Amino acid sequence: MTQDIDLNQQLFARAQKVIPGGVNSPVRAFKAVGGTPRFVSKAQGAYFWDANGRRYTDYIGSWGPMILGHGHPAVVEAVQRAVLEGFSYGAPTEREVELAEEILKLVPSMDMVRLVSSGTEAGMSAIRLARGATGRKTLIKFEGCYHGHADALLVKAGSGLATFGNPTSAGVPPEVVQHTLVLEYNNVAQLEEAFSLHGPDVACLIIEPIAGNMNFVRASVPFMQRCRELCSQHGALLVFDEVMTGFRVGLQSAQGVYAESIPGFKPDMTVLGKVIGGGMPLAAFGGSRAVMEQLAPLGPVYQAGTLSGNPVATACGLATLREVQKPGFYEDLSRTTRLLVNGLTQAALGAEVPFCGDSEGGMFGFFLLDALPANYGQVMKTSNPRFNHLFHGLLDRGVYIAPALYEAGFVSAAHTEADIAATVAAAREVFETLPKA
Length: 437
Ligand SMILES: *Cc1c(COP(=O)(O)O)cnc(C)c1O
Hints:
- The protein is α/β, with parallel strands linked by helices.
- The protein has two domains: 7-71 and 327-433, Alpha-Beta Complex (Aspartate Aminotransferase, domain 1); 73-324, Type I PLP-dependent aspartate aminotransferase-like (Major domain) (Aspartate Aminotransferase, domain 2, 3-Layer(aba) Sandwich).
- 37% of the residues lie in helices and 16% in strands.
- It contains 13 helices and 18 strands.
- It has helices at 7-18, 73-84, 94-106, 119-134, 188-198, 221-234, 253-261, 289-292, 311-324, 329-350, 376-379, 384-396, 417-433, and strands at residues 40-44, 47-50, 55-58, 112-116, 138-142, 155-156, 166-167, 180-183, 202-207, 210-211, 217-218, 237-242, 269-272, 283-287, 356-360, 363-367, 399-400, 409-410.
- The strands form five sheets. Strands 4-14-13-12-9-5-8 form a seven-stranded mixed β-sheet, sandwiched between helices.
- A hairpin with a 2-residue loop joins strand 15 (356-360) and strand 16.
- The longest helix is centred in the last third of the chain and has 22 residues, at 329-350.
- The radius of gyration is 22 Å and the shape is globular.
- The two termini are 30 Å apart.
């Protein structure tokens, strides 16, 4: 560092006095990797700059939304135009209808959609709706999948399939998670057992089809097929949490990826967020007309929001969705992402570092392991100190990957082959210095 004063450090000290941990979302604090969080001053394209004016190639993209890169001209223009027309009205607008139509056109498994402001809100509302529509209480989720921070979802597996889960956060009473069953991802036998024990009580099964909150772990096709069959058989709703994967892994989202292998495959409900807001607070949940008409004001399931369908956020989301529909968008994005994962793999191999990676569309993950993990337990076996060494080595070289082992990574349309080559070159240097496993 050329500067004597580290402005990130100064800001972090100031932030910690007024914001718990100095951050408004825990992972930003660098607790897992140590060191000082970079305070971002601006971003453009594939890069952002910290408080010291240092540039980083950005592989988190606001944790997914920035699929076009930062400051895409068409999106900036749409937002600027919208801002001049007002920030929020609390009354309906044509733009909300337009965005809903656009989302439904692209996600044919949904007949109707409601717009909200965050993925947490969308996931929480989808579960309430699933329970309201089925008249059942039990909720199945999988260890390592994140669906936002609603009480009923902050839960880890109990001691057995008959016992239900335990809260993972203080402030969540055990009673609140007593209807949440937590199962192992990709474990068909356990899934079957859970349905045979609790089938008639299951309102919904919620899943990240390609999990991005335990790094990057795909649900296997047979596992997904079983989820679909068992939900249908027992009258439970299959809820796809595509807050991360929606319009990130492809124009058909993750449900399209599974439909390629399972003919006619579709979930009953879908939760969206991140990309559909293009970086503004916007999320959505939707499903069949019959289910969605259970929502207020038509039905008995209550849900509301002051800023829902916000005119500036919807302008940002619409402009983003227009760009991703341009011919070749996902082909190019997938190619760039694969270039990164293959480059990192080759660099690691060259340094005899155990490494494996995977990607879909503009989302990727890698592990300092010989084989890809299939569930959270296996992800947990990865070595933290070695990941942290890699993280800081890359950061020192101007490459910003997720500051925690259990997070997916994101490539945007603004990342060039030259950006990827520079990142791979940086990784090659770091792999050479990585402590042995
Ligand atoms: C990010 C995320 C959420 C939560 O969205 P927020 O907008 O952060 O509340 C929910 N589910 C998944 C799969 C996510 O990746």
